[in-house]
């Protein structure tokens, strides 16, 4: 049995991150089920079946280069 912990990744560009996940074998989870996503979020199922959510965030914790 897989653990069922919510996994979220903050991303700068939600569209680009979603496209990258799908290109690498992920599939989008429909918004009408128990794993529905809010605005600014996309839930993806990876090739092994694990779920994760991509969250649009302009203030994600990545290094800022000046």
TrEMBL record:
<dbReference type="InterPro" id="IPR041581">
    <property type="entry name" value="Glyoxalase_6"/>
</dbReference>
<dbReference type="InterPro" id="IPR029068">
    <property type="entry name" value="Glyas_Bleomycin-R_OHBP_Dase"/>
</dbReference>
<dbReference type="Pfam" id="PF18029">
    <property type="entry name" value="Glyoxalase_6"/>
</dbReference>
<protein>
    <recommendedName>
        <fullName>Glyoxalase-like domain-containing protein</fullName>
    </recommendedName>
</protein>
<feature type="domain" description="Glyoxalase-like">
    <location>
        <begin position="7"/>
        <end position="54"/>
    </location>
</feature>
């Amino acid at each position: 049995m897989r653990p069922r912990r919510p996994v979220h990744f903050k991303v700068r560009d939600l569209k680009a991150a979603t496209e990258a996940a799908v290109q690498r074998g992920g599939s989008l989870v429909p918004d009408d089920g128990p794993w529905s996503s809010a605005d600014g979020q996309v839930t993806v199922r990876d090739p092994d079946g694990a779920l994760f959510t991509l969250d649009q965030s302009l203030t994600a914790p990545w290094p800022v280069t000046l």
